[in-house]
Amino acid sequence: MGDSLTAANGAKAVKPLDVLTQYRGISWCIGGDKSMEHVVTLPNILRKYNTDLRGFSLDEGPADTVSLSHLNVAVPGSIALDMPGQARELVKRLKMGVHGVDWQNDWKVITFFIGGNDLCKACIRRLADLHTLESFVSNITAALDVLHREVPRAFVNLVPSPDVTEERKLNKGLVCSVLHIYECPCGAYSRGEGTKTLKLLQMQYNDALRNLATSGRYDTKDDFTVVYQPFVQNMTTPTIMVDGVEEYDLDFLAPDCFHFSDKGHSVAAVALWNNMLATVEEKKTTVNVSDTVNCPDQSRPYFTTYLNNRAARVTRSVAAAAEAPPQDEHLERQTTDWLHKSLAFLAAQLPDREAEDDFFLEFASYGLLREEEVVAIRGCMDDAGLPMCSYLREVLPAQRGSAPELLLAAADEEGVEKAYPVWHVMLGVVVGAVIVCQSIAIAVLWKSGSKRRQDLLSHGESLSLLSGPGVKYV
Questions:
Q1: Among the options 99, 180, 259, 265, which is catalytic?
Q2: Measured between alpha carbons, how far is residue 108 from residues 146, 322, 393 in Å?
Q3: Greatest C-alpha distance within the chain
Q4: Cα–Cα dist 241/237, whole Å
């Protein structure tokens, strides 16, 4: 879904007029011409792992040539306003079974890339209302809502809007300078405050996209998620040295110095694939033309979502603790206390009662959660008016450490406790606490050594404690 950058306008162009041609078969995120050895695209990379891939676009032509465009519904010139319509068109094609797609059972990767044309025209007064932040967010939300409501088994890549002020540097020669007047006047010819305003709007667009993806709005089902892939966010034009002088490498661009060439599409495909495999913390916000296709990590052989990323982070912390040397008895008791607190917080943020029951059953059976703590945390979770801080104050003795009291004091000061359960605010701090005390957690994990506890530390079972797309398929 997107505009001319996804339709691949000019990707194989030799002369400026060829930029009007849509070379969809080599589009970075949906093209399927030839194979990865000849054309690097996301589908061709995926076909290394699944030869039965369906839906990729082929050859060239407009979006309405469905026999070739298949599930590539991108239309040149599109803006955010057009995205709900594209979402509905995509849903229609999926339900029709275009290119042999099984609507209900096939897993789908949807790449959503828009915003460049909004920014390119945002400075034109008569069009300004179409490109405000509010209008942009409203239309993107409406489109994602359609996908969330209608499409089962989907992983959505939400790609940020590019920095169109880069076009100022690419007014090279008469052809590019003239074409930029029509393609991206605000990006290519803004100056001073106008450039700053445009850059600010791009940052606001992308902040809104990231917040939308991480809000949890689209993580309410086990088979659908939206993940922000930020590699375009700070993307700049590649450079090369010519006779000792650094110049822009126009080989990555079409003859209009605006759209991607075939080399540009390959670089974007590699960047998207690598970001899909990377943890949230490792995702890149720019593109390196020398990057190569990463292979999936055997310890994490799946695309990263916000839910499985969080679960894997906790699992890595506990597993690292199991490899640490044993500690003394006092340290063991202290570690047990910290682990009890951490488990309590983690249980409270699980998505439903069934997941909570599984959580308690697992940890209670390993002796890591005492019966009175299970009862107390259950009471807090069942009573919406009783926040998690009550559990900490009333059940955990004061000698267990001052950290919870400090957290509670901070929550009270900010008034957080009155509005939300405190676990919602403290979850990040607790996960951090698990990591900080990983070097001493062996006192509780090492001494047990039972096979059941080792099973708990196994990657797949640990991740199964948290639900989310991709988790149960690890």
A1: 259
A2: 15, 37, 47
A3: 78
A4: 13
Catalytic residue among 3, 33, 118, 163: 118
Cα(188)–Cα(177) distance, integer angstroms:
8
Order across the sheet with 224-228: list the strands.
108-113, 154-159, 224-228
Q: By C-alpha distance, which of 44, 43, 42, 116 is closest to 76? A: 116
Q: Among this protein's residues, is 259 annotated catalytic?
A: yes
Q: Which amino acid is at 291?
A: D
Phi, psi of 22 (to 5 degrees): -100, 105
Q: pLDDT digits over 248-289, tens only?
A: 999 999 999 999 999 999 999 999 999 999 999 899 999 999
Verify whether residue 118 is a known catalytic residue: yes
> Tens digits of per-residue pLDDT, 17-73?
999 999 999 999 999 999 999 999 999 999 999 999 999 999 999 999 999 999 999
- How is 58-115 classified by DSSP, letter by letter? -SS--TT-HHHHTT----TT--GGGHHHHHHHHHHHHHHTGGG--TTTS-EEEEEE--
- 442 C-beta neighbours (distance < 10 Å), count: 20
pTM of the model: 0.70
